[in-house]
Amino acid sequence: MAIAQARAAPVDKQAAEAAIAELAAAFGNRLVTSLAVRQQHGNTTTWLPNEPPDGVVFAQNTGDVQTVVRICAKHHVPIIPFGTGTSLEGHVNAPFGGVSIDFKDMNRIVAVHAEDLDCVIEPGVTRKQLNEHLRDQGLFFPIDPGADASLGGMAATRASGTNAVRYGTMKDNVIALKAVMANGEVMTTARRARKSSAGYDLTRLMVGSEGTLGIITELTLKLHGIPEAIASAVCPFPSVEAACNATIMAIQTGIPVASIELLDELQVKASNAYAKLGLKEVPTLFLEFHGTESSVAEQARRFADIAADVGGGPFDWATKPEDRTRLWQARHDAYWAVIQLRPGAKGFATDVCVPISRLAECVGETKRDIESMGLIAPIVGHVGDGNFHVSVLIDMDDAAECAAARRFVERLAERALAMDGTCTGEHGVGQGKMKYLPAEHGEPAIAAMRAIKTALDPANIMNPGKIFAMNP
Amino acid sequence: MAIAQARAAPVDKQAAEAAIAELAAAFGNRLVTSLAVRQQHGNTTTWLPNEPPDGVVFAQNTGDVQTVVRICAKHHVPIIPFGTGTSLEGHVNAPFGGVSIDFKDMNRIVAVHAEDLDCVIEPGVTRKQLNEHLRDQGLFFPIDPGADASLGGMAATRASGTNAVRYGTMKDNVIALKAVMANGEVMTTARRARKSSAGYDLTRLMVGSEGTLGIITELTLKLHGIPEAIASAVCPFPSVEAACNATIMAIQTGIPVASIELLDELQVKASNAYAKLGLKEVPTLFLEFHGTESSVAEQARRFADIAADVGGGPFDWATKPEDRTRLWQARHDAYWAVIQLRPGAKGFATDVCVPISRLAECVGETKRDIESMGLIAPIVGHVGDGNFHVSVLIDMDDAAECAAARRFVERLAERALAMDGTCTGEHGVGQGKMKYLPAEHGEPAIAAMRAIKTALDPANIMNPGKIFAMNP
Fold first, then answer.
1. Which residues contact B34 (CB under 8 A, 6 or more apart)?
2. Counting CB atoms within 10 angstroms of each CB, which of A254, B14, B107, B408 has the fewest?
3. Whole-angstrom Cα distance, residue B290 to residue B142?
């Protein structure tokens, strides 16, 4: 593979072996060192090269995580937390070797406080598992990045997804968390109160820190009541610009849409083929409204008027639950649908986010770039936030295609930054977006991040080689 | 005064004098050292002793702040940011001397991006000033702590107030900020995109850090469209427990109230006397609903049903804008109304926040404590968040009364912590709540805060003596 070749990693093999031996004594067959399992715990879903850890520990509780951290700290060996491996920017890779901690067995729902609209969970709980557990109580957790990711991973990468325009991102929905720090101690960031002004916001510092400051072992999450009424709709537009402009107007006029998702014509074509949707193959918005029966109807009516104003429509309801499910399943399967456009190809997925006033322009320029480069690259987006994704379909064995995809992604990130946006709205930095961070935040911010990292993890053993370089 | 005596502060007088001399050369008459002005810049609104700085610089731009920080850093002299001085926990005091930076002249509204629902402002802009500026564009900034505080101070203390139940706190409404760090450099925390997963959340780290990590010199804030319809209402209840239970049910059933404020019978009495409200002197909820005409009516109807279920009511609309204004003015004047209950007394104000399921119990126990201690102490609260305030009216010259008030506040903080709550929902830690922080967060969290502080401000010159002790 042209991109996915192994990097030369300055791993201290002796230290890793010593740590693995101690971990084997502590965890028995819950430490796995087979190549297949190690490679599974490197990157699976991205264009980045697979960099497997030296071993994988399947943790069962916070004490296990403390044990791993203490052993690794003693030998100066990296620790990489692993949820479901669905991250897109190389977060779970082990560029310096080390030990991956797999959280699949830490998937207990510790408590649901229905009366407080919160729950306490272990980090291996996935969002679908949590929502299945909550359904009977009339509650749900709204953050939905598409993949059935672990909530620990979602917190670590500050994930968001289709409902963020209404319910916020992980940053807005984590009330408190516990994390094992580099010294092996367990830090609790906050109490269960809905708000607090008691000191530094360690919760928000840990959310999005991608395992580089500590390892999340428990989360207290905000829950929401399942809305009395949910309505979905589909609305075609003459251009992506028109669809973006309708989105901008909906947000500006304060329609509290729960989701507003753009699929460009290529994505609609792909989803039609994959999910038999039978939609007109033009830029299309998928919408969801939450509220009471009457407020949902009112929101939808208002949106339909806006869509008509920019030449969009007809605005089609999907009132039957099965239609709704099919629609949103198609949205969630967008990536898999895309892959079918070019069998054998892999999707080089990226995302950016810009102020919503620049969205139409940013999407428009990006589409022109895709065309002029001759790429196959559908666009889907959580456009209510100004956030959109592009999946460039490439043959990973073709060096020229890989290089073109890289150039395209680079130009996209630079375009977003030039529009006062961010190089990643929700995928995180990991390895893939590291190089854009200084341009996005400036040196003083990167210096502050580096100082915080050094303060909390002086030996740089917590998921090193992610977000920013320690020795630039 | 029994409480308000000056503390012995280990100030290096010579260093302070050297810094003041340099500042005088740099700022001329924008450096003020008169005792009156210095005392104004110590604490004014709290029970804590006034600890004036050595001088006050009236900054006009970020460059001025950098100059102050660089001069103070050179002489190891503390720097204390000052907005409007309305904080309640001693945030603006100078226990180790130093230089106060007054932001009243840094009150420019740099940009309003109506289409993106955001604005860029200097930290001295007050919330009323901003909202007056925005009104013509149909926009508003929702965070309202009562006082016409500076937005820089509100960000620094993670303020919230009456609308937080719907719109969140400062943590949720600051998109990005600029801050002068201890090394004199200007750090920008984020771009204007609505969401980002690009690295550590430095915005949220700075919000609530009370000037101890850096000095905010610019804020990018989220704005909201002025709702099409706003309705206010008043609803009496047979007990504070009943009022709390109605609140809990409203939140649990997802009524998107914009404000839900409890006044206990003593507060209603005080506000009746002060603002001629003519309300029945029983525990009362003030409510505000935002939305479309029909959604506001629906929300109000649902709340009225809930109130009736717990024996509350009648639910009275205040539909005329002048009635609404009078009502909310009375709510905002609650503190001044309270003072009139006992002329000459001062209010020892405190706040806590608990999970909403514990709110009725926490308020009930607190009222019994007030009674058994023979205190005059009305309760008002942003009860939708589980947050409430108590103002203990005391004669500051009476040592026994002061001691009793302290004991009461201590017990209240401990009660909130025992209920998985926080010792401060929105006032911040400052000096007044420092002693509760280890119990609230545990040693590992305090150690992390201290490590972050040392990493970003190694000489401890940024508002020292606040939030936590550096040498416990």
1. none
2. B14
3. 11
CA distance A212 to chain B (A): 10
Architecture of the structural domain at A109-225: 2-Layer Sandwich (3.30)
Q: Write the CATH number of the domain with boundaries B227-428.
A: 3.40.462.10
pLDDT surpassing 70 at residue B3: no
B13: helix, strand or coil: helix
∠A442-A446-A450 over CA atoms, to 5°? 170
Q: Looking at the complex, report in whole angstroms how far the Cα of residue A97 sits from the nearest Cα belonging to chain B.
A: 22
Does the beta-carbon distance from B449 to A118 stay under 8 Å? no
Contact between B120 and B388 under an 8 Å Cβ cutoff? The reply is no
Domain formed by B1-226+442-472, architecture: 2-Layer Sandwich (3.30)
Reported as a single tens digit per residue, the pLDDT across B113-129 is 999 999 999 999 999 99
At residue B472 the predicted structure's pLDDT band, cuts being 50, 70 and 90, is: low
> What integer is the mean pLDDT of A300-321?
91
- Cβ <8 Å between A199 and B442: no
Residue pair B442/B468 in contact (Cβ under 8 Å)? The answer is: no
3-state secondary structure of A325: helix
Q: Name the helix (H) or strand (E) containing A57.
A: strand A55-58
Kindly report the nearest CA distance between residue A343 and chain B, in angstroms: 31
Calpha distance B283→B260 (Å, rounded): 13
| Sign for the pseudo-dihedral over CA of A62, A66, A72, A77 | positive
Whether the pLDDT of residue A5 is over 60: the answer is no
Give me the mean pLDDT over the B205-219 stretch: 98
Among B87, B171, B177, B200, pick the best mutation site for testing chain A contact (most A Cβ within 10 A).
Answer: B200
Residues of A in contact with B436 (CB under 8 A): 198
Question: What's this model's pTM, rounded to 2 decimal places?
Answer: 0.96
Interface test with B, best of A116, A172, A197 (most B CBs within 10 A): A197
Q: Is the ipTM of this complex over 0.90?
A: yes
Q: What is the mean pLDDT of chain B?
A: 94
What's the pLDDT score for residue A199? 98
> Are A92 and A199 within 8 A, CB to CB?
no
Angle (nearest 5°) at CA B383 between B381 and B387? 70
**A186, A386, A423 ranked by CB distance to B198: nearest:** A423
Q: What is the CATH number of domain A228-428?
A: 3.40.462.10
Give the pLDDT confidence score for residue A201 in this predicted structure.
98
Q: What was the pLDDT predicted at B11? A: 67
Distances (CA, A) of A143 to A190, A193, A252: 21, 20, 22
What does each C-alpha distance from B21 to B17, B24, B60, B97, B459 come to in angstroms?
Answer: 6, 5, 19, 15, 21
As a CATH number, domain A13-102 is 3.30.43.10
Q: Who's near B270: CB < 8 A, 6+ residues apart?
A: B334, B337, B338, B340, B341, B378
pLDDT, one tens digit per residue, over B260-296 is 999 999 999 999 999 988 999 999 999 999 999 999 9
**Pair of tokens at residue A230:** 């949910």
The ranges assigned to domains in chain A are 13-102, 109-225, 228-428
